[in-house]
Amino acid sequence: MIKHQEGFTLVEMLAVVAMVSVLSTIVFVSLTTTRSDQELEAARKLLSSELRQVITWSQTGKIEGSSGNLPEGYGIKISPGSDAYIIYAEFDGDKKFQSTGSDVVISQNLLIDSDSISRVQFESCTPATPKCDVYSQINSGELYINGTKTSDLQITLEHVSSGVQSVINMDRSTGQINVP
Predict the structure, then answer these.
(1) Residue 103 in contact with residue 75, Cβ under 8 Å?
(2) Where does the record locate the signal sequence feature (predicted)?
(3) Rounded to the nearest 5°, which phi and psi values hold at 22?
């Protein structure tokens, strides 16, 4: 009587291990990409919300709480390559934030996870620019970038690990903030 041995051959085992490895790699890359997309989306939503708040304060003429006075306008200042930004009330009339002037810092914030977002850049600011400053003037709603009047605004966010970029656009004429 001949006994048949049942089991798997070495080739069959190697084929199964190879398939499991390929599938595991695909799942890992997919999950990593999804996480970086979510982090970027969260930062984009946060910055869009803060920008909307600054515009609303400028349009309604919000009185700045700590001073009790009506500022010239409100703004957001971000240093290129940084993950932090400040929201401020502008009082000295130069249409940009001056830490040594009469401008008042309302809040200092981080974009969600400081290890996730590598770059925040305005269209007219480059990494060589010491700061990117968006300012909205009270009543007129005019936008200024680093003290210079602009018609539209584009802010680019970039994720550290994936290099994926996300853009926030603002149409000054309508005040609409678009997140494509």
Answers:
(1) no
(2) none
(3) -65, -45
Q: What is the pLDDT of residues 106-140, one digit of tens each?
A: 888 877 655 555 556 565 565 556 677 888 888 77
Architecture per CATH, 35-61+70-178: 3-Layer(bab) Sandwich (3.55)
Question: What are the pLDDT digits (tens) for 33-81?
Answer: 677 777 778 878 888 888 888 888 888 888 777 777 888 889 988 876 6
pTM of the full predicted structure?
0.71
